[in-house]
């Protein structure tokens, strides 16, 4: 079970999950920065 193939797949899935999360947070941050110029607080 805990062989090289398992670890390579686990690392690949971890990197993929981190990439998806980073892309989502980056989009949210840019969207928030873009919208902040239009608000009149």
From TrEMBL:
The protein's name: Uncharacterized protein
Organism, scientific name: Microbacterium foliorum
Organism lineage string: Bacteria, Bacillati, Actinomycetota, Actinomycetes, Micrococcales
């Amino acid at each position: 079970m805990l062989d090289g193939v398992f670890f390579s797949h686990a690392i690949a899935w971890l990197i993929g999950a981190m990439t998806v999360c980073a892309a989502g947070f980056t989009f949210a941050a840019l969207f928030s920065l873009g919208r902040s110029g239009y608000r009149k607080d």
